[in-house]
Amino acid sequence: MALKNIIGIDHAVVMVKELDQAAENYRQLGFTVSPRGTHSVHMGTGNYTIMFDPDYMELLGVLAATELNAPARAFLDKRGEGIERIAFTAVDSAAGAEEIRARGLEPIGPTDFERPVTLPNGTVSAAKFRTLMWPTAEAPGGVRIFACQHKTRETVWIPELMRHANAARRIKQALIAAAEPAKDAAHLARLIDREPQAEADGAVTVPSGGDRADFVYLTLDQLAKRYPGVPLAGLSERGGAALVLVSGDLAATEKALGSAAVRSGPAICVPPAKANGTLLAFVAG
C-alpha cells in the first residue's frame, strides 16, 4: 500500500563546501537564488534555495558541527560536493513517521526547525518545517531520503524567486549513479511503495509519486551515453549525479549559461565541475 502522508519529490539537496561561493556560482548560471537562510541552532546548517514549481533545489552548507549534520559532514569529507539527499513532500510528518515505523524501520524525527526569511517587501518572516528521515543506512544508491512538511509555504514559494534567466521551471528527473541500478532502484521502491521501471538502456526509473520528478538509477557509463560530450569529472560511481531540469526556453537557457553550456543531443548541460558536483541537464518542457 502506497504511503499516504509522503508524496513525490519536494527538493534536491546539493551539499556544498563554501555556501556563499556556491550561491554566486548558481547565480552566474542564470538561477534566481534566494537570500541566505540560517537554520535553527540544532541543525547547524545554512542554505540558499532555487525555487521552481512544484519543487526546488537547495544549496546546503554546514555552519557549525552538530549531531544532526554529522552525515552531511561525512558526505563532504568522503565524496565532496554534490546531491547528498532528496526530499519528498510530507503531508503530515508525524503520520508519515508512523507509516515508516509500521514497515519495520525506525525513522529519524520528526524534527522541527525554521529559518528567517526576508520577503520582497523588506519584512522578515520565517520558513518553518517539520522533517523526518528514513534511517541513515537506508540510502538507495548512496543518496539519503527524507520527507519535508512545509508549515509556511508562502515564505518558501515566493513568486519573485521562481523566475530564472535560464528558464528553469521544474525538476524532471534525479539521476543517481549506481554500479547495480536495478538493485538500488528496488531498494528505493520498497521504501516508498513504488514500482521500478526498466529503461531500454539498462537504467531503472522509480516514480516518486504524483506529478513529481522521477528517480533514475544508472551506471556512469549509461550516464555518459545519455549525455555525450559532457565531461563527468568529479562524479563518483555511486551517489547523486545529475538533475534534469525542464526549461521553458532553451535559447534563453543557452544564453544564460554562457560558456558553461555544453550541447548534448536535445539537452543543454552544465558539467558537474561547474555546478558544485552536479550535472545539470536542461530539456524542453
TrEMBL record:
InterPro entries xrefs: Glyas_Bleomycin-R_OHBP_Dase (IPR029068), Glyoxalase-like_dom (IPR025870), VOC_core (IPR037523)
Domain of life the protein comes from: Bacteria
Chain ranges of the VOC domain: 8-150
Pfam families recorded: Glyoxalase_3
Protein name from the UniProt record: VOC family protein
Source organism: Bradyrhizobium forestalis
Lineage of origin: Bacteria, Pseudomonadati, Pseudomonadota, Alphaproteobacteria, Hyphomicrobiales
